[in-house]
UniProtKB/TrEMBL annotation:
Coiled coil: none annotated. This is Orotidine 5'-phosphate decarboxylase. Keywords: Decarboxylase, Lyase, Pyrimidine biosynthesis. One of its GO terms (molecular function) is orotidine-5'-phosphate decarboxylase activity. Substrate binds at residues 43, 65, 260, 327, 347-348. Residues 37-363 form the Orotidine 5'-phosphate decarboxylase domain. Its EC number is 4.1.1.23. Belongs to the OMP decarboxylase family. GO terms for cellular component: cytosol. The active site is at residues 96, 98, 101. CDD domains: OMP_decarboxylase_like (cd04725). GO terms for biological process: 'de novo' pyrimidine nucleobase biosynthetic process; 'de novo' UMP biosynthetic process.
């Protein structure tokens, strides 16, 4: 493992660095406050299972990774319910979509269709096989989604009744005022319409005024570095989470640089090009899916998230773990302490456990202990 500064700096200190994007900074602060660098891979097939799993282990995780296309009854209600749990339990959502197509296609896959990922997942990921244009395309799609979320259109319609002849002499003069608001996209997916009441047939002078208002997301300020490697808390975790607030409506991307399956074709040259593309898009790319930290240049502060993590059953430490489909597993200590990864991704080890809550805590404690051991080496 290299001696890059990101390996011996605390999550809290890294959140404050000027090269850290707002959403990455929020995630690092969330990890620090909850003391969890665990991401749950929620590979279940129904909405009910997904929401229940999030409820069960939400307190132990910083991220929930979804595969929305394997949830057979996925709907906007699923996304809305998941976001409600994420808000209460304080974790972010990562849709493991692995985009790998041309620009226009991935933009539609990201923002449209049945899943509309950009509306509910703070983080997604992509292969760079199509070249750097895939990152540019997804970034533009994310910007469009954010702009729509922060934009409201208000249309006011004024109609003045025309007075014409004796029949109208007794009518009081008045001005008819109706307004309609076109709101940002809602999770239920109803088509947005302007609701305009039918006008009185005597109205003859009509004026329409449309105003567009923009809001800026409230982004939690980056904390000042504490100058050391220890996690420093002036408040209890619950109070700090309140102070942190909800995540800003921003979107970020992870690039796949290495996979945990045996025989994958992501060569060192491919990884090198992936890192170069990430450096060219630091504002949007927060990090990598990889088996080791890829931070090498002084200004690098990418977050490495790592699948293929599993703890052996109690009493069977040292046992080599894997499955019949080429998946290879490493322990939290190896990935966090030895390889310099930041967040472990665990699926079946928790999802299939008899006691999911207890098993999630076992993984959380193991990964956090490995992180504390790593930064103490500084």
């Amino acid at each position: 493992m290299s001696s890059h500064s990101s390996l011996t700096s605390s999550y809290r200190a890294r959140a404050a660095l000027p090269t850290t994007g707002p959403l990455a900074s929020y995630l690092l602060r969330l990890v620090s406050i909850k003391q969890t660098n665990l991401c749950l891979s929620a590979d279940v097939e129904t909405s009910a299972e997904l929401i229940q799993l999030a409820e069960d282990v939400g307190d132990s995780i910083c991220l929930l990774k979804t595969h929305c296309d394997i949830v057979t009854d996925w709907s906007d209600r699923t996304a809305q319910a998941l976001r409600e749990v994420a808000k209460r339990k304080c974790f972010l959502i990562f849709e493991d979509r692995k985009f790998a197509d041309i620009g226009e296609t991935v933009q539609k896959q990201y923002t449209s269709g049945h899943h509309r990922i950009a509306l509910w997942a703070e983080i997604t990921n992509a292969h760079v096989l199509p070249g750097p244009a895939i990152v540019t395309a997804l970034e533009k799609a994310a910007e469009t989604t954010i702009t729509r979320h922060n934009t409201s259109v208000n249309t006011e319609i004024f109609a003045t009744r025309q007075t014409n002849g004796a029949d109208d002499d007794d009518d009081d003069d008045f001005t008819y005022n109706d307004s309609a608001i076109e709101s940002p996209i809602e999770m239920e997916g109803e088509e947005r319409r302007l609701s305009i009441k039918a006008q009185d047939r005597k109205h003859s002078v009509v004026s329409v005024t449309t105003s567009i208002s923009m809001r800026t997301e409230s982004i939690s300020p980056r904390p000042e570095p504490n100058g050391g490697t220890e996690e420093v808390f002036s408040l209890d975790s619950a109070t700090e989470l309140v102070h942190l607030g909800p995540p800003p409506f921003l979107r970020s991307l992870l690039l796949l640089a290495e996979m945990s399956s045996a025989g994958h074709l992501m060569t060192p040259e491919y990884q090198k090009e992936t890192v170069k593309i990430a450096r060219d898009h630091r504002d949007f790319v927060m990090g990598f899916i990889a088996q080791r930290s890829l931070n090498t240049e002084p200004e690098d502060n990418f977050i490495t998230m790592t699948p293929g993590c599993q703890l052996p059953p109690p009493g069977q430490e040292g046992k080599k773990l894997g499955d019949a489909l080429g998946q290879q597993y490493n322990t939290p200590h190896k990935l966090i302490f030895e390889q310099g990864c930041d967040i472990i991704i665990v699926g079946r080890g928790i999802v299939r456990a008899e006691d999911r809550v207890a098993e999630a805590e076992r993984y959380r404690k193991a990964a956090w202990s490995a992180y504390e051991e790593r930064i103490k080496k500084a």
